[in-house]
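step 4 of 6: structure.
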Amino acid sequence: MSIIVEFFFTETFPFDILYYCCDMPQITIKELAARLNLSISTVSRALSDSHEISKATRDKVRALAQELNYIPNLYASGLRSQKSKTIAVIIPEILNNFFALAIDGIEEIAQQNGYHVLIYLTHDDHIKEAAMVQHLLNGRVDGILMSVAAETKDTSHIAEFANMQIPVVFFDRICDDFKTIKFVTDDEHCGFIATKHLAERGCKNIAYLSLSKNLSIDQKRMDGYLDACKNLQLKTNIIACTQKDIENEQIISNLLKTDKSIDGIFASVEKLAISTYEVCNRLHINIPGQLKIISFSNLRIASLLKPSLTTINQPAFEIGKQAAVALFRALKNNTIFTQSEEIVVPSTLIIRDSTAAK
Amino acid sequence: MSIIVEFFFTETFPFDILYYCCDMPQITIKELAARLNLSISTVSRALSDSHEISKATRDKVRALAQELNYIPNLYASGLRSQKSKTIAVIIPEILNNFFALAIDGIEEIAQQNGYHVLIYLTHDDHIKEAAMVQHLLNGRVDGILMSVAAETKDTSHIAEFANMQIPVVFFDRICDDFKTIKFVTDDEHCGFIATKHLAERGCKNIAYLSLSKNLSIDQKRMDGYLDACKNLQLKTNIIACTQKDIENEQIISNLLKTDKSIDGIFASVEKLAISTYEVCNRLHINIPGQLKIISFSNLRIASLLKPSLTTINQPAFEIGKQAAVALFRALKNNTIFTQSEEIVVPSTLIIRDSTAAK
DNA sequence: TTGTACGCGTTATCAG
DNA sequence: CTGATAACGCGTACAA
């Protein structure tokens, strides 16, 4: 179906290709210098706003650059200055409102700073993550924003960034071993609040759906859950889920079929709440009548679900934005972070029908 | 709150910073050559699998490269070979399941090909889009995947890519003027089907919620709608919406309050369906009793809404993937696309409760 | 099969 | 204030 014209291997060149072939020469600093009868270095300095250039030549150069649509070659300047005007964002997945929102925030700040954004999706695979990190160790990027993969336990690959003087900022799924600035929400506190909320609405047997024991956020949310259960003298029930929706539905289905006394579900991440909804639909379990559900989530349409879902709403856009701001501050000062520091941006409990009292 | 250690401005250097300062030298081809008593070019050739190198030295070089964790400097090779191993994805927004899915597909293919992915979000702003495109005209990327902004009417900025010999693939929101390969779904046909479905479920007065007249997909979906209305002898009612949710809710609210005879809504994009749900909740309009709704959408949880939403489900992941595959084929062959070609990946109608017959 | 030498477009260090 | 010149790391025509 698709038509690809192969320049080098076809015999006949269509007419319009000939047009494209005589493409305009890239406008370089050299070209500008030639046209203005100036030296290359003068032009370079004029464009980089050097103080040691007369206003007259400066304006002349900039005018021509503008006119000819000069764009500096990032590879040349990157090679020379060891700066790439590019940052990398490494995240587990993009089909997740939290990360989509975070990227939105990050991209906005990057644009303001004239930076480019590279995206890498680990799909929670430690091997992939390590490989991606490897490829960024060579001056490819000036800085990194990262949310570690659920699988990642050994974080030695990340430590290399410090050696390479590349600043790293973690957000959401952080890595305790690596000393840097980290942006998170108040996971433990919210874990506590969520559990307490379920209890207040009458739940006696609350199950916590966990995504991965390696995950910083999961651990903290779980700690909050455990703490609340202890306080309220409720029994605890931690269910280990996986990365696969189908498996999770099986796990949740088994759980609810086996233990009929479970009257509350605390989903550590959005997709587990959704799987729970699916299972309840299938098993004809009434929410919130028989089972109440609460979840960490950034679902825009939580209020439109049947029933509307009570959520702990994370400030994802804000976290992305702030993490990016911190990174650019470091880049501007030519520094890396050498101290662990957690910035906590609080989440909000939004009570809806999935936890309504009977 | 945040602690940034500034290398150049602080008086005291913590001990661990000193450690970081004496950072290891970047491992370059030169370094490998020195250690192996070989010339730089030999090493270069060995690493690029040249035929004119003995297996012995080839293996020796690769072994050391592996051991020292050599990673080629992309800026140097990019400068030299005018190839960047990087593609750009330009899309209107990321808070949209269609684009998130598409990126997922694109990233997968890019990874398989050893390419990096730059993300640019236009937020449907023509000025921003043109600026981004400008910055990509200088060999920054080897190829481009693009979904044009709703605002974009004048597409001259895009034409420059052809001059620069950079292959471009459009997906979803395409640009008719520019000759290249384009991946879309069967928008017009689905527009027809969706309208017909509403009519079959008893709707007599169907309003079409349009996002932008400039948008290729919107035009086609609308054409399908108009065609179906004509066929079925229904009156037409096209409502121009905007990029802002709040404004859209106002528009829809006014519409439903003013014209009580409207019994069907065809939302051209997901977010307009969601706004309609919000408005119906507020105005206590029963779906599907008083109003039936259908929408183009990639919402994973359409089935969990109250009521579940009838959708035209686009193969977003597949479109992203195929578009990327086509781009890499062009890159591999060192070609650009010079013919317009539309590849249609069909969507699926999924009937749910929001269009149930009374 | 291997080595030498040059250049990609910039920036930075010298002189003038 | 401006100009020549050397690097940055790599690829490749040419020579050996």
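step 5 of 6: annotate
 - Chain A touches chain B through 81 residues (CB under 8 Å).
 - The mean pLDDT of chain A is 89.
step 6 of 6: archive
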